[in-house]
Amino acid sequence: MLGSVLRKSARASAGIARGSRGYKVAVLGAAGGIGQPCGLLMKMNPLVTELSLYDIAGTPGVAADVSHVNTAAQVKGYAGEAELGAALKDCDVVIIPAGVPRKPGMTRDDLFAINGGIVKGLVEAIADNCPNAMINMISNPVNSTVPIAAEVLKAKGKYDPKKLFGVTTLDVVRAKTFYAEKAGLETSKVDVPVVGGHAGITILPLFSQATPQAKNLSADDIDALTKRTQDGGTEVVAAKAGKGSATLSMAYAGALFADACLRAKNGEANIVECTYVESKVTKVPYFSSKVTLGRDGVDTVHGLGTLSAYEQSALDAMMPQLESEIKKGVDFIKGA
Ligand code: NAD
Ligand code: LMR
To answer: Which residue, judged by its Cα, is nearest atom 5 of ligand 1?
Structure first.
């Protein structure tokens, strides 16, 4: 997809995309490890005509740098809370990678107190300045930051469950890479749905539904691939040894998901992504599964299909953690 974005960007900058409406996209946390490459990738997206790069500091430099890239999007940097409203005004899609990343030994839930407060403030500003935007939540712990965002929007009378997404695309990106490697397939030709949430055992790749179906994988291989996907974030945190978590692969995944939202908004049909949304697929109120996206956000939340016995037991096992992390997010705004 990125190759096609690059090709389309070149065409867009040559004027071929003229006539499509074009969208305003904001990246909040745009001076960070994810925010900077994600801003660059959004500058290269032909559907973006205005790109707002917001952070508490550092964004004028990032925006000046990114603005020299040869694509049509107009880039502006906004720094500090006083400029947040202008950054968000009438945005169509808001990508949120603002907040602190993990260090070795930490869980995503250890980020809750600090990132919960950051997300709360940013989503309040979204409610006031672009209540119709599709929100792409990257900040961890996603299992809780999405419910936090929902409660903030509800309190402001601006909640639209069709427009709030936890970005779990990196789990799909990882599952595809690990599966293709193990099965000897081309990564670009495989697909693996990943359901649940975005932390440890709440991440559940459904290799029984992977396409194409590899015939050479044993039950032990599937178990190892499942665990590697669940621990993919921790693998990167350990390798970075105190210098943060996944940034480049996350920027890639975040750009893929934002591109899917923009293409759906632009009227393209049959856009299906795994994403963490308000859901009735299981007993918990937020859950990631395949979702068809439309002009107004979520069009259809798809069920889980047929699970293997291994996947069913992993699904049962994740429920208590997912339920409690969702409740923690809700209680953060509503009070326990
Ligand atoms: P980083 O520290 O490099 O960047 C975070 C940026 O957020 C910084 O520039 C910081 O100034 C900014 N920030 C802090 N408070 C802010 C506020 N109130 N408003 C706007 N910006 C603010 O961190 P990173 O590596 O880019 O990671 C960011 C977040 O993304 C972390 O919470 C991390 O856990 C999460 N993450 C999620 C996924 C996923 O799959 N969903 C993957 C990787 C990382
Ligand atoms: C990831 O999956 O890479 C992110 O959630 C960051 C992390 O803390 O692992």
So the answer is: 32
147 close to 264: Cβ distance less than 8 angstroms: no
User: What are the respective helix, strand and coil percentages of the chain, to the nearest 5?
Assistant: 50, 20, 30
Report whether residue 232 contacts ligand 1, using a CB cutoff of 6 Å: no
Residue 241, pLDDT score: 97
Query: Could you give the dihedral angle defined by the CA atoms of residues 46, 176, 201 and 136, in that order, rounded to the nearest 10 degrees?
Result: 0
3-state secondary structure of 228: helix
- Tokens coding 160: 């639209």
Contacts of 68 (CB under 8 A, 6+ apart): none
102 lines ligand 2 (CB under 6 A): yes
Residue 198: active-site member: yes
Question: What residue ranges define each of the domains in the chain, with the CATH number in brackets?
Answer: 2-168 (3.40.50.720), 169-254+267-334 (3.90.110.10)
- What is the chain's Cα-based Rg? 19
CA 157 – ligand 2 centroid, Å: 31
Mean pLDDT, range 49-60, rounded to an integer: 98
129 is in an annotated binding site: no
Q: Quote the tokens at residue 28.
A: 């909040």
ipTM: 0.99
27 band by pLDDT with thresholds 50, 70 and 90: very high
* Nearest ligand, CA 254: 1
* Residues contacting 35, CB < 8 A, separation 6+: 27, 28, 29, 53, 55, 62, 97, 98
Select from 27, 28, 52, 56 the residue to mutate for testing ligand 1; criterion: most ligand atoms less than 8 Å from CB: 56
Ligand 2 atom 1, closest CA: 233
Confidence of residue 21 (pLDDT cuts 50, 70, 90): confident
CA quadruple 109, 115, 117, 121: dihedral positive or negative?
negative
Are residues 259 and 45 in contact, defined by beta-carbon separation less than 8 angstroms? Answer: yes
In angstroms, what is the span from residue 52 Cα to ligand 1's centroid?
16
Q: Whose CA is nearest to atom 7 of ligand 2?
A: 233
Task: Judge if the beta carbon of residue 140 lies within 6 A of ligand 2.
Answer: yes
Specify whether the CB–CB gap between 99 and 112 falls below 8 A: no
